[in-house]
Amino acid sequence: MALSNFPHANPEIVLFDWHATLANTHDGMYQALNDVVPKLAAMNLIERLVKTRDSRSVQDAKLVRSVRENGHLGTTLEQARKISRTDIFEILFGRDDEAKRIAHAAFDARYASYCAKIRPNEDGIRPMLTHLKTMGVAIGILSNRKREFMEYEVGSIDGKGWLDLFDTMVCGDDVPRRKPAPDPILQAVYNLGEKPGSRCWYIGDSSADVIAAKLAGVTAVFYNGANWSAGGIDRIFPGTTRKPHRPDVVIECFDDLLRMANFFTGPAGTDRSVPPTCRLDLSPKRHCGLTRRPGRRY
Fold first, then answer.
1. How far apart are CA 218 and CA 105, in angstroms?
2. How far is CA 176 from CA 97, 179, 191, in A?
3. Average pLDDT, the chain
4. What's the rounded Cα separation, in Å, for the pair 124 and 102?
5. What's the pLDDT tens digit per position in 212-266?
6. Terminus of the chain with fewer CB atoms < 10 Å: N or C?
7. pLDDT of residue 1 exceeding 50
8. ∠230-235-240 over CA atoms, to 5°?
């Protein structure tokens, strides 16, 4: 199924996920996960893993089986490093919110040792954020991270930090439920004095981000920073009864985001013809640009 490549309304608010969207924290995240997963048995969480027969896909079942039988994430997942800890805990524990709460708390305790391992996920992110602000767009940042980690990471990334760029920040311990619940997005929109709708774009790299956006009633923009193929994205978002949520837009990099924002907010008289429907570029080389294949207020 082709994914729509263009939002339906101009952005008044643009909200960003942090890990693997604006920031590359893979090293620290996977080190913390590799500390926590072998200890799930000691935390009495192995028996609370989703039954493999109830997993939503073959890939999900393999991950659950690896954790249950071997006490680790599996070599393939570790090498690929394409999904977040939130998605991993969603796959492992499904609807067991208490098990996920315990797992997230254990992760936070270990991540404290690794949160300095951070860098921008793309070149030019600060200018991109600054450009959005000059358009009059309110921008915010969301994460399932604890606030103490987020304030450190956002305040230190790129040498001088990006705290001055965001109008709001919502963290995992600011709301009753973490993503994929819509709570962080709804809180961010509330902080900005607005209501959720299509004029709020939420950009994130995971299925949890897309689910949260759809449940919140905002435009869901999937950032394909992991360079998934079109088939890979269809597997992540199959649009089935069990996994119904699909992104409204797929972007390959932040140049795509600026192109879309410029289309809506550019000066009168500029070319505002909607770009042709696009899908992901299936070529091995990473392509940047629209392609014909496809808390608290600061």
1. 28
2. 11, 10, 15
3. 84
4. 37
5. 999 999 999 999 988 888 888 888 898 888 889 999 999 999 999 998 888 886 6
6. N
7. no
8. 120
Q: Give the tens place of pLDDT for each residue, 133-158.
A: 999 999 999 998 889 889 989 999 98
Cβ of 268: how many Cβ atoms within 10 Å?
5
* Distance (Å, whole) CA 174 – CA 176: 7
Superfamily of domain 13-24+118-297: HAD superfamily/HAD-like (3.40.50.1000)
pTM of the model: 0.75
Report pLDDT digits (tens) over 57-101.
888 899 999 999 999 887 766 555 667 888 899 999 999 999 999
The residue extents of the domains of the chain are: 13-24+118-297, 26-111
Q: Please give the Cα distance from 174 to 151 (Å, whole number).
A: 13
pLDDT for the residue 43: 95
Measured distance CA(59)–CA(168) in Å, rounded: 36
CA 214 – CA 140 distance, rounded (Å): 17
Return the structure tokens found at 79: 């090498």
pLDDT number for residue 236: 85
Q: What does the alpha-carbon distance between residue 22 and residue 254 come to, in Å, rounded to a whole number?
A: 9
C-alpha pair distances (Å), 290 with each of 10, 227, 270: 17, 14, 18
